[in-house]
Structure to design on (472 residues):
DNA sequence: ACGGCGCAGAGTGTCGACAGCCTGTATTAT
DNA sequence: ATAATACAGGCTGTCGACACTCTGCGCCGT
């Protein structure tokens, strides 16, 4: 879990910050580090075998990504998930689903579709294997690839960020279900691919809306069920 | 211009990074620091009268904002403006104009409208005074206030970022014109305010599209004229 | 004259240390 | 017993120093 680094592996100059950033980012997004847990600079520096400076810079970047919250003069904690902010989140997510899928259809780049298909296949395999983490990751890559096809870097970066934030929520959701129903997502993805290749913008828009609504409904059901319990407990 | 800091003003603990970040950010957005100019950590530390650490952290935050580009093991430069990326930029900007204005109309928060009106007035005053920098800033605040009214923090942060990036482009544009025609923008803003207050979502959408198109057209004319010259020179 | 090599200078990446702030605990006064 | 206060510990914010890497220039060989 907290695997130590081989003692005297002198890493390349400049790689310190990046490796810590990547490692922490993965752990946060995969929920290996639960929201709210404290990140101590000294302890991290011991764990990664380097001084506090690279650690600090990694935390700063994570903070810019919104993955971590810095309490001035106190400590840094993994950003909490604000369930109250879910409706706006889904709003934004739906919008980006639509915009990127439409743009991809309008441009029709057969070469880029290879990439999309690759991720779709990875997604399908993860579904077959009941591999929740793999599904989430492949799903993200699938949609990012479509956004890239769309050709608007502003959408790509915003969408990526939304999808990353969603990874933590999806992780909660999948972990309670051990799902077998995401097979439907596979079919919806296939339909989206077909519509993009046909250059059918209107169908893309419809499919994107439906796809988003599907996800939103599933998660809202989950929230209503499990969070209902949680608040009930809290209100005792 | 490069005003020095009073020698022995011991700043509050933790304010170092923030003040440097704010100062550099302002200078970059106002084009006081031209794109591509180098930012030397040592020189900055001398100028701000502090060690390199807070400077570094400020630069890191600016880099996360995309305002600055870090060349590993070399130096940091002010991010350049990529004119090739203008079409996607305008695409994204138009979308956010529409989405935020619509959302604001759908929610109709009379209290929040005060804030919007305040910025609109500041904008009108800047136009009267032919104050290009004031116009740009007030315009940004005006649209951000509308986005806040819309109630979606994801849109607010994405839109803010787009508008900030636009500040530098607008600055180029205004600086060549010394404009008196932005009076039209004032009228368009008024129309938008009226439509929001009426809760007329469709009209808001139309106005937002028109407003964006207006800006896009102006800037494209500018680019066609002045950049045409520039590329002509480059191709000699 | 021209191309490859080495060198010096500049600037960053990393480190260890110090000082200040915050929290929680123990102590004291009421 | 309770509340305010002082204290100790932990952690962050900042500093100055060192090592490494890159660039540009001058030197040397051809």
């Amino acid at each position: 879990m907290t695997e130590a680094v081989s003692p005297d592996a002198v890493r390349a100059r400049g790689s310190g910050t990046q490796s810590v950033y990547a490692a922490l980012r993965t752990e946060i997004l995969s929920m290996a580090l639960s929201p709210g847990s404290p990140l101590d600079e000294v302890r991290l520096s011991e764990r990664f075998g380097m001084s506090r400076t690279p650690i600090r810079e990694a935390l700063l970047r994570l903070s810019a990504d919104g993955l971590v919250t810095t309490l001035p003069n106190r400590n840094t904690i993994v950003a909490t998930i604000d369930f109250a902010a879910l409706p706006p989140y889904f709003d934004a997510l739906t919008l980006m689903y639509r915009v990127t899928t439409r743009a991809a259809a309008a441009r029709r780049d057969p070469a880029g579709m290879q990439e999309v298909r690759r991720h779709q296949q990875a997604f399908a395999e993860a579904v077959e294997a009941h591999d929740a983490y793999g599904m989430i990751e492949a799903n993200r890559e699938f949609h990012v690839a479509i956004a890239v096809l769309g050709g608007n870097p502003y959408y790509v970066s915003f969408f990526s960020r939304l999808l990353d934030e969603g990874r933590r929520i999806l992780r909660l959701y999948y972990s309670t279900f051990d799902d077998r129903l995401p097979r439907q997502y596979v079919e919806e993805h296939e339909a989206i691919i077909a519509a993009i290749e046909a250059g059918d913008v209107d169908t893309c828009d419809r499919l994107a809306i439906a796809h988003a609504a599907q996800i939103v409904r599933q998660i809202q059901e989950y929230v209503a069920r499990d969070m209902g319990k949680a608040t009930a407990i809290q209100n005792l």
The CA atoms of residues 3 and 47 of chain A lie 8 Å apart. Strands of chain A lie at 38-39, 68-70, 76-78. Chain A touches chain B through 25 residues (CB under 8 Å).
